[in-house]
Amino acid sequence: xxxxxxxxxxxxxxxxxxxxxxxxxxxxxxxxxxxxxxxxxxxxxxxxxxxxxxxxxxxxxxxxxxxxxxxxxxxxxxxxxxxxxxxxxxxxxxxxxxxxxxxxxxxxxxxxxxx
Amino acid sequence: xxxxxxxxxxxxxxxxxxxxxxxxxxxxxxxxxxxxxxxxxxxxxxxxxxxxxxxxxxxxxxxxxxxxxxxxxxxxxxxxxxxxxxxxxxxxxxxxxxxxxxxxxxxxxxxxx
Lengths: 115, 113
Hints:
The structure holds two protein chains of two kinds. Chain A is built from no helices and eleven strands. By secondary structure, chain A is mostly beta strands. In chain A, strands 2, 4, 5, 9, 10 and 11 form a six-stranded mixed sheet that branches. A five-stranded antiparallel sheet of chain A has the order 1-3-8-7-6, with no helix packed on it. In chain A, β6 and β7 form a beta hairpin. Chain A starts with a strand and ends with a strand. Chain B is built from no helices and eleven strands. Chain B has strands spanning 5-7, 10-13, 19-24, 31-37, 44-50, 53-57, 64-68, 74-78, 87-94, 103-104, 108-112. Chain B is globular, with a radius of gyration of 13 Å. The A-B interface holds A 6, 32, 34, 36, 41-46, 49, 89, 91, 93, 98-108 and B 4, 6, 31, 33, 35, 40-45, 48, 55-56, 58, 90, 92, 94, 97-107.
């Protein structure tokens, strides 16, 4: 019940296209859902995050869509650029699901944006 | 404001040895969490420290231990190293225990031979 399932494992998108990565969770006690971007040899960088009281959050080219009833959330990268090529992780945490700041991560999606 | 820093960057140890990894939190942050990231996988929560006390632990054996100091810097110690301990070890800091946002350091790449 603590798992976060992420798909796809890898994704190839043409420059200017839309990248979509999906995550699903089981534990309804999760109440914080961040996305992290990780480049090779670097630590994960917080990209954008959402809480269950909203269905969508947008920051620049990055949008999170959240479906509470389906227990799913997704990351959309608009106008994808070669510099967006990285591994993306969804995660979840919650006071009633192990505690604040104790993130449960998905397995990651390796995104390649071709010029 | 400085970000999260970790040392060393890389480390090679032999099975059975002990290792200490270090982390300096982002300025003003009093909560530190440690994660293990095996190659090709997502990070896994090891444990968390808040104001020098352990505040939760993931599914890791007791040979993984930690410390947090009064300046909120932190150490991860691993005893009796096993080959499967080879991974990227990440520390993440938060402004406070009840703040969700965590900021990760660059990690320490540990190789056990």
